[in-house]
Every structure is written in structure tokens, then in C-alpha cells.
Design brief:
The chain is of the alpha+beta class. Helices cover 60% and strands 12% of the residues. Among the domains are: 149 residues, PAS domain (Beta-Lactamase, 2-Layer Sandwich), CATH 3.30.450.20; 106 residues, no CATH class. The protein is rod-shaped.
């Protein structure tokens, strides 16, 4: 990319210089030639004025003696050279001047100008002034060399500027490419920094947002996998025990066992749906209080399939009046399911779940403060249930 930027910039600069420089160089060359011809024409007209009164023995201007590159020829009315240097007989330029026309042309590789000599209204002769092209060519060559030097300086400046700009543009894109590679390999912690280039910063912001979204999505899926493994292990074990008990018990009502198993399957499906909703973060905070009765009934159904066979009764204590809490039903159900699973796996004896208002200063807070045993140690309380009632 850097090389393409540099090449394109230098090419554009070269084209621009050519488009503007070549016509300018041609125009300057024409200007120098016209200026030289104009000088020769003024010299020839001055000579024609000075020799008009004495054409037989003309006196040439001193300029021709000071500058050897400049020559003047004086011709009479018949086209014969009567003074100065030049062709002995009249050529087309002299004939045109004798006809009263100023003429500019090249003569033997020299700039030449021919003007008529007039005595009143009568043309009595002609003057031809010539000069070598060395001076004009030198001026044109010097000007063109200066223009080429400016063009080279412009190209070098464009090259240096293009390299700097290419680095400024390519570096953020390289960082963006590395970030995209890391994102593709599963690193969702990538973060690109602002560059000051709006277009690249827009892409950087999109990459950062995509990385954040993918990271959150993967984290939710991992949480779902872990929660599913934890939440379904115990219900599946209970379902298996129900089915095995129905098969191993003589005379057992198979239809009742199947109905109870289907009920357990429904609870498993509801658990999976709740976990999916929680993992995808699609649940919304309830606008109405949590339905404690529905939650209590679900807890009783869960315990019936998990710990009842171990002869561990479940006691549910709901304070009067019932506490008011705002929480997703799915979230509350999963929290209590984890607590019940822990109680089934790691506890002994009866299990009690209490619901009360644990806000400081409430009746439920005073009623359920820890009581002291005879040895001074506090009796166990239910902080997890209390936290749920407070939510």
C-alpha cells in the first residue's frame, strides 16, 4: 500500500508538472525568439532611418561593431548590396522589403529581419539585420534547465511527502489488520486506538464494538454451558431414579411413573428455556412484583424430584404479609435451584427456605434477626433466601 501511494503521488505530480510546464516552456521559448526578432527589427529600422539620406555610402550603427554576432546589410532599389554584410544580390526577404513589407525569417541559420528604406513616400532600398541564435538558445536552455530543476524539486518534495503520508495511513491499517486477525483467532479483548483519520476511526469503532459484542456473546454461551451442566445434573439424576424405582418396584403404577417423569421433563425444558433467556440477556426486569406463590410451587416440585427420596423434607416459610421483590422469575428460579441443589448434595436433614422482607428497619428484618443458642453462638439463618426477598 505504501508503495502504491508513493507511486501514485509522484505520478500525479509529474503529470501536473508536464501539463503546466511543457506549454510554459514552449511559450517562453517563443517569447525569447520574438523578443530577439523585435530587437533586430528596431535595429534595422534605426539603420534604415539613418541611411535614407545617403544610401550610396551608408554609415552602419556602432552596435554592429560592438557585437560581432550582429550583422547589417544595406541594399539599393535594384537589390544590390551597397553596404554591410549579407548576400550580394537580393533574396526573397530583400525583395519583400523593397515591396514595402517588414519580413522576419531565418537566413543561413541566423535570425533575420528585413525592412524597407523610404525617402518620403518612395522606397529607395532595404536593410537586412541578422544575428546568431546562440544567445537566444542559451537563454532558452537556461530557462528550461531552471524549470527542470524546479520540477525535480517538486517531485522530490512530493515523494517525501507521499512517504510520510503513506506511513500515516498504512500504520493504522496495519494495526487494524492485526486487530482483525486477533479477533478472528478468538481474542475478544482487542481494542484499537483513534488515529485522527475519520474513515479509519469509523472502522476502528466498528471493530471494537464487534469485539465487545462477540466477547459478551461467547461469555454468555460459556455461562449457559456451565449453568446447564450444573442445573440439569440433579434433575436428570432424579428423573433417572424415578424411572428406575418404577421398574424395580413390583406392582408399581407405570402410568403414574410415566406421568411424573413427563412432569420432570417439562421442568427440565422450562429450566433450559430459563437458562437460554438468562444467557442471552434477553430477560427484562419485571414491572410487577415477583409472584412468590408460583416460585414456591416450582420449588416444591423441584425438591420432590431431587431430595424427597432421601427422606429430607422441605419446609417453606413465607412471612406475612408476603415480601415484595422485583426480580426476573427465571432468574429467581435459577438462583433457588442452585441453592436447593447444594442443599441436596452437601446438606443433611430437613431443608427450610424462608422468604421475608430484609430491608433495614422492616418487621421482617427484626423478626428474622439471628437468635442465640444457650452456648451464646447464633443460630443459623437463611441469608440467601433473605437476599432473594430483598431483591
Amino acid at each position: 500500500m505504501r508503495t502504491r501511494i508513493v507511486r501514485l503521488t509522484v505520478l500525479v505530480t509529474a503529470v501536473a508538472f508536464a501539463v503546466f510546464g511543457i506549454p510554459l516552456a514552449v511559450g517562453l521559448a517563443k517569447y525569447f525568439i520574438d523578443d530577439q526578432s523585435a530587437q533586430l527589427e528596431r535595429l534595422a529600422e534605426a539603420t534604415a532611418t539613418s541611411v535614407s539620406s545617403n544610401l550610396a555610402t551608408p554609415r552602419l550603427p556602432a552596435a554592429t561593431q560592438r557585437d560581432p554576432s550582429m550583422q547589417i546589410g544595406v541594399y539599393d532599389r535594384t537589390g544590390t548590396r551597397v553596404g554591410g554584410t549579407g548576400p550580394t544580390r537580393a533574396d526573397p526577404m530583400v525583395n519583400a522589403a523593397l515591396a514595402g513589407v517588414n519580413t522576419r525569417s531565418m537566413l543561413d541559420g541566423r535570425f533575420a529581419v528585413a525592412v524597407p528604406v523610404a525617402d518620403g513616400d518612395l522606397i529607395t532600398g532595404a536593410v537586412v539585420a541578422t544575428e546568431t541564435t546562440t544567445d537566444v538558445v542559451g537563454r532558452i536552455a537556461l530557462t528550461w534547465a531552471f524549470m527542470l530543476a524546479l520540477g525535480a524539486a517538486a517531485l522530490i518534495s512530493a515523494w517525501l511527502l507521499a512517504r510520510r503520508q503513506a506511513r500515516r495511513l498504512a500504520a493504522p491499517l496495519q494495526d487494524l489488520s492485526l486487530a482483525a486477525q486477533r479477533l478472528g483467532s478468538g481474542d475478544f479483548t482487542v481494542h484499537t486506538e483513534p488515529t485522527g483519520i475519520p474513515e479509519i476511526d469509523s472502522v476502528n469503532a466498528s471493530v471494537n464494538d464487534t469485539a465487545s459484542r462477540l466477547g459478551a456473546l461467547v461469555e454468555r454461551e460459556r455461562a449457559f454451558s456451565a449453568d446447564t451442566s450444573h442445573q440439569l445434573r440433579t434433575p436428570l439424576a432424579g428423573l433417572r431414579l424415578q424411572l428406575e424405582a418404577a421398574l424395580d418396584t413390583p406392582g408399581a403404577d407405570q402410568s403414574q411413573a410415566i406421568r411424573e417423569s413427563l412432569t420432570s421433563v417439562d421442568r427440565l425444558q422450562a429450566t433450559i428455556e430459563d437458562l437460554l433467556m438468562l444467557a442471552r440477556n434477553n430477560q427484562r426486569r419485571a414491572a410487577e412484583p415477583l409472584d412468590i406463590a408460583v416460585l414456591v410451587d416450582d420449588l416444591a416440585q423441584r425438591w420432590r424430584g431431587t431430595a424427597a427420596w432421601r427422606d429430607r423434607p422441605l419446609s417453606i416459610d413465607v412471612a406475612e404479609p408476603a415480601p415484595i421483590g422485583y426480580l426476573s422469575g427465571a432468574g429467581a428460579g435459577q438462583i433457588l435451584a442452585v441453592l436447593l441443589d447444594n442443599a441436596a448434595q452437601h446438606g443433611r436433614g430437613a431443608v427450610t427456605i424462608a422468604f421475608w422482607d430484609a430491608r433495614p428497619g422492616s418487621d421482617g428484618d427484626r423478626r428474622h434477626r439471628p437468635r442465640r443458642r444457650a452456648d451464646g453462638r447464633p443460630e443459623p439463618t437463611f441469608p440467601a433466601a433473605g437476599q432473594l426477598g430483598q431483591s
